[in-house]
Amino acid sequence: MTPNADRSPSPTDVGFALNRRQFVAGAAAIVGGGAILAACGSDAAESVDTTLAAADTTPVETTPAETTPAETTVAAAETTVAAAAAADLGEVSFGSNYSDEKPKNAIAAAVAATGLKVKINTVDHNGYQENFNTYIQQPDDVVSWFAGYRMRAFATKGVVGDVSDVWNNLPDLSAGFKSAATGLDGKQYFVPLYFYPWAIHYRKSLFEEKGYTIPTDWAGLLALCEKMKADGITPFAAANDGGWPQMGMFDMINLRTNGYDFHVSLMGGKESWTDPKVAKVFENWSTITGYYQPDANGRTWQDAATALGKKEVGMYLLGTFVTSNFDPAKDPEAQGIIDDIDFFAFPAIDPAHGQDAVEAPIDGFMMAKSPKNEAGAKALLAGLGGADAINGYLKIDPSVVAANSKADTSGYNALQKKSAELVGAAKYIAQFLDRDTDPDFASKVVGPAIKDFLSGKAPADILKTVEEQKATYTFE
Amino acid sequence: MSSSEPAASSGLPRGRRSRLQQLTFSDRVWLKFAIGIPVAVHVTFVWIPALLTAVLSFMKWDNLRPPSSAESVGFRNYWQIFTIFDPKLFPALFNNLVLIFFLGFCSAIGMLFAYMLDKNIRGGRIYQSVFYMPVVLSVAVVGFIWKAVMFHPQQGLLNLVIPGKGIDFIGDQTPIFQVHIPFLDSPLGVTKNFAALLIAMAWRHIGYVMVLYLAGLKAVDPTLKEAAAIDGANEVKSFRHVVFPTLRPINVVVAVITVIEALRAYDIVAALNEPRGTEVMGTLVVGSLTGEGGGRVGLGSAYGMVLFILCIGFIIYYVINNFRQAD
Amino acid sequence: MSSTTVVTGRKPGVTRLSRGVLQTFLTLMAVAWLIPIVSAVYASFRYFEGDSLENGVFSRPKKLTLDNYREAWRVGSMGRHFLNTMFILVPSLILILFFASIVAFACTRFSGRFNVFWLVLFTAGNLMPQQVVFQPVFQIFKRVPWPNLLSDTDTGYLLGTKVSVIIVHVAFQTGFCTFVLSNYMKTLPKELTEAALVDGASVNRQFFGIILPLCRPALAALGTLEFTWLYNDFFWGAVLLQQGREHPITSSIAQLNGQYAVDYNLIAAASTVIAIPTVVVYFLLQKHFVGGLTLGASKG
User: Fold this and answer.
1) Contact residues on chain B for A451, CB-CB shorter than 8 A
2) Which of A346, A464, B19, B202 has its CA 20 to 30 A from that of C176?
3) Would you call C66 an interface residue with chain A, using a CB distance cutoff of 8 Å?
4) Which distant-in-sequence residues (6+ apart) come within 8 Å of C103 by Cβ?
């Protein structure tokens, strides 16, 4: 049970642009307590309840963490939605990996918005994912999970339930989300809640000060890197602790070099890793690793984010959760940094593909194969896919971008709006390497291969090994 | 089922007297229960699963579908770990080998500490507690201490002490030395981050071994040591000729514990996040058997069997040695 | 006697000198040993952002605080997880020591070929790498029905109950304790029980009345060791318990790790709290600790 497993975080794990303390600080400022909080960050935690109460953001009776920490039974009789019908359905159990404090309260609010009686089982998100294989053999009625291959693998093995009929009641989820929720047999097994995109982050003030411009193609990116290097700035922040952060770089270069279709096919095990097209990806990659922070393999994404905050590095390819590394309640400069961070889409490499694909992992829910309370489980899923649920969620944790098109977006900050635009404008949405392929293959074969690549091993040897090991996977 | 038994067995023949020197019927029943219940629990949850693991190592099974879906694949799992996953297996085995030697060295230091503490020096118990403290700490805590407090590239204590650019102790996979074995794809060697890991392991292992030796030294007849001192034998001589030979049984215990600990090392490596270059057999096994998408039970079991076979030789040597001596 | 005085008269200077060297060496080593722990504890009293993040973990603190402890306790739900650990640990510990002493007693006092075989099996089983057997154990628990009355979950099966974790601990740890206890019991004079046997005391009486009380030091030592091991287990608790609120204390760190991956001060506080019980138990039973460990088959 490694504390930090080799996998990418999900929107569940990491916030978007704000974090708990910032939100608290913001909310507190509204009720007039900002000065105190700024002076003494330690009180922030305790004031969560009061500020929430003061702002009246949630109808949920959130149980204090000390008494029933991981389990919150939400009985939401007063909620506006569907309360009458819900009472008949009995209690639904819900396995949640929303274990951090703010997401935990937020998901409780989302659940409450469905008007159902739900027993929430919260497991710390690392352990949840790590043990999902065993957990799904004795699951709660509804379980948190991810879209893409990761969901499909469990659907194929018949351990999760078909929720196609739930989708009849989900008109506000676009076709893109539906296809991400569909198994190989054409049925739906997943209901999305929200997503975040991956993009290249930078400090606006640094770009202004030095006169850098946003590159849209490969040559532009390389030129920018050279310029930064000349200015004494490390062009690319590079982290790979946990083995997943650099998978994003592989994905983007592959998507730009070979296009979405090839990427998906490669992830599905249908292409050879010794194909010259893959070699080309590593060739392109090699041209920018020279601009990386050294020793990427041992650096956490947070440490790399801190370097971005200090303007020691110019650019950082990561999910938009990068801003959650900065906490205004503890660091007075953090708010300035958050406001100063912007992102741009990964530059085009092959004009044939342009910037047509974006990477945006989606989080949501699946249903157990034989839930104790099937009617209740389906009602809960339908509710969670609705606008009310995500609105309830956003009120407490405004750091995500809703999947539901009718969700209230008035609270979005600039980055969230931009994220929604970026994903909305993209022709193709990839999930992330470890969500688009066999997770075991991702973490045990591709992850180590990328680590080897970063520590200087020749790509040809690496790819030969990957192909050889790939043959032992069935990709069903 | 286990929890209800002690009451039953202890309640059996209470207070009953028999004039016979031989065991009475109730005594025999008592003994049968006394051994039978623990043995049943042990066999059911240790040895039968071990046997099943051996069976699984010849199967293909994803652990999600019912076990009946498992199909026999003969030696394919073994073939795969030795040929296709050889870049994982052999470096891991090599790391285990390095661990055996390194922890053996640490055991010697532990013995030295124990020998010194056995001399009734002032504050002996305090030293003993200090050296033993890391053994008491949870591996999760030990992992945190070394990863974040000692080895952190920016804020780690070692980096504050060592001048210059921050050293990434846990991320640095540069090999310290490498051996090219002709028929292996990748060279074997010790990486810098594995060496860093060894320091954390030594920190724990020395205290552990020290306590075992202290226990052993307490059993050494004090008159022997005094006699040696009276003879005017110097420290080294008295240790070599008087103390060390009497420690033979404990040496066997420590030697086997050291080897076994080195072979099944898992938790510290995992707690430090299995940095590349530091995989050992234990992490390979767990990685394949559990974890998301750990649908490769056959492969994981095959790794497990390799580890088991390596361990079992030492285990057998140990128990035979111990019990033959006892008889 | 006279020779002793000669020796001590000849060598006191040397001895004092070597003792001084020894003391200095041990002190230096002890300091080296303590540095990582002290540093972690020190970090736990400091603020992260606005202090040690900017100034480094070992800079002079702007202000010492207990807030990290408060927050770690609250966010990690440590109170609840402590109780979980105790519910697993106490029954396991009692069962392990009870089973082990009973088997050791039966095997050493009424020895036969058969008994030695079981001792060998026990010891070997304990040394086995535990994770290897995870899948079969998991599948067994998944299939054994267990009344919900006897657990705090409603799964209907052993899997997911604390009982399952207790069973695994007992199955594995009894071996080691049996080994140590049988070695200890061998050092007790045979006459003790033989006399009792002549008196006509039952086996049960011999065990509870004579042997068990004499084993107190060994039981204390084993109790210390097993307490540490069971308390620090973070494999079985995490893989067998499906409900987050059931998880043992060691998972609190995982909880905090995800949330505050870089707030080292907070995790340091949690680590310190987690470490306290085992340290306290060690110090309480320390007196018996070394004396009770009879590992080698030393014939007294």
Assistant:
1) 173, 276
2) B202
3) no
4) B34, B35, B38, B39, C118, C119, C122, C174, C178, C182
Cβ burial of A276 (10 Å; 0-12, 13-18, 19+) is exposed
From the list C80, C159, C254, which residue is nearest A127 (CB)?
Answer: C254
Please give the residue of chain B at the shortest CA–CA distance from C288.
B215
3-state secondary structure chain C: CHHHHHHHHHCHHHHHHHHHHHHHHHHHHHHHHHHHHHHHHHHHCECHHHHHHHHCCCCCCCCECCHHHHHHHHHCCHHHHHHHHHHHHHHHHHHHHHHHHHHHHHHHHCCCHHHHHHHHHHHHHHHCCHHHHHHHHHHHHHHCECCHHHCCCCCCECCCCHHHHHHHHHHHHHHHHHHHHHHHHHCCCCHHHHHHHHHCCCHHHHHHHHHHHHCHHHHHHHHHHHHHHHHHCCCHHHHHCCCHHHCCCHHHHHHHHHHCCCCHHHHHHHHHHHHHHHHHHHHHHHHHHHHHCCCCCCCC
pLDDT by position in tens, chain A (length 476)? 333 445 676 654 554 434 333 333 333 333 333 333 333 333 333 333 333 333 333 333 333 333 333 444 444 333 434 444 545 788 999 999 888 777 888 999 999 999 899 999 988 877 788 788 888 888 999 999 988 888 888 888 889 999 999 999 888 887 778 878 888 888 999 999 998 899 999 999 999 999 999 999 999 999 999 999 999 999 999 998 878 899 999 999 999 999 988 998 899 888 999 999 999 999 999 999 999 998 888 788 888 999 999 999 999 999 988 887 887 777 788 889 999 999 999 999 999 999 988 898 999 999 999 999 999 999 999 999 999 999 999 888 877 888 888 888 888 888 888 988 888 778 888 889 988 888 788 888 898 899 889 988 899 999 999 998 898 887 76
Q: What global pTM score does this model have?
A: 0.80
Residues B117, B283: contact at Cβ < 8 Å? no
* Min Cα separation A300/chain C (Å): 9
Q: In degrees rounded to 5, what are phi and psi of residue B136?
A: -75, -30
Mutate which of B60, B69, B149 to test chain C, going by most C C-beta atoms within 10 A? Answer: B149
Q: Of the candidates C36, C91, C297, which has its C-beta nearest B145's C-beta?
A: C36
Shortest Cα distance from A101 to chain C (angstroms)?
7
CA distance A96 to A98: 5
B233 DSSP 8-state letter: -
Contact C125 B47 (CB under 8 A): yes
In chain C, positions 173-232, which contact chain A (CB-CB < 8 Å)?
A: none
- ipTM associated with this complex: 0.83
Chain B residue with minimal CA distance to C230? B138
Q: Residue A384's closest CA among A78, A97, A142?
A: A142
Which of C135, C166, C167 shows the shortest C-beta gap to B289?
A: C135
Query: How far away is chain B from the Cα of C224, in angstroms, using its nearest Cα?
Result: 9
CA distance B4 to chain C (A): 10
CB of B293 within 8 Å of a chain A CB? The answer is yes
Contact B84 A438 (CB under 8 A): no
